[in-house]
Specification:
- The protein is mainly alpha-helical.
- 76% of the residues lie in helices and 0% in strands.
- The chain contains eight helices and no strands.
- The chain is globular.
Length: 203
């Protein structure tokens, strides 16, 4: 990566961060909630910049778009345990629309559409059954949309491994903390771990 392309990439990444953070804070204002705390905003921004530069250098543009679309969900779920449908469905739709871009893809449009719709139906049924049985929402509806959206980006096997890794990571703090755990941060961490495992095992 040349110096000029690195500067352009950095500017684009900063612009994406600014727009996504603006969207999140606007949503929080709509619901009379305080804006994102600086520590959370800055920590995610720093990791995103480093990851974005790495993915651009590796020419993994589909993964970069996926993590960019995950930013609002990561912030909101970590901060307020919210996964609003406007952001989960945007994540889902962007995943399908990227199939029309001239970049690398790990799954075809037909498979992405079918797999995400099937998982949505299965997870939606599980959500309904758990709610009926416990008479409260055990699994969040936003989680259902987020998991279904992930299958629009990744192959079914990779998406299943990522979700499994996220739920395993969620079990670690739950042994000491009985409060509900946010899915998005653990899913992002699972995706990062999977990304680097694949990267290093291919070398």
């Amino acid at each position: 990566m040349s110096l000029l392309s690195g500067i352009v990439t950095l500017l684009v990444l900063c612009s994406c961060l600014y727009l996504q953070r603006w969207q999140v804070n606007a949503f929080l204002r709509e619901h009379d909630a305080p804006p994102l705390p600086n520590w959370l905003s800055d920590a995610v921004s720093l990791v995103f910049i480093m990851l974005g530069l790495f993915l651009t250098y590796q020419e993994k543009f589909s993964a970069l778009l996926m993590f960019t679309a995950l930013l609002p969900l990561l912030w909101l779920d970590t901060y307020r345990h919210w996964l609003p449908l406007r952001f989960t469905n945007a994540f889902w739709c962007i995943g399908l629309l990227t199939q029309f871009l001239p970049i690398e893809h790990t799954v075809s449009l037909l498979l992405a559409t079918f797999a995400s719709a099937l998982i949505f139906c299965l997870m939606g049924t599980l959500w309904w059954c758990l709610k009926r049985y416990h008479r409260r929402e055990v699994l969040g509806l936003g989680d259902v949309h987020l998991i279904a959206g992930l299958f629009a980006w990744l192959s079914p096997a990779t998406a299943l491994y990522s979700c499994g890794g996220a739920f395993l990571l969620m079990l670690l703090p739950m042994s000491h903390n009985k409060s509900p755990q946010p899915l998005a941060p653990y899913l992002c961490l699972s995706l990062l771990i999977g990304l680097f495992i694949v990267e290093f095992t291919q070398k």
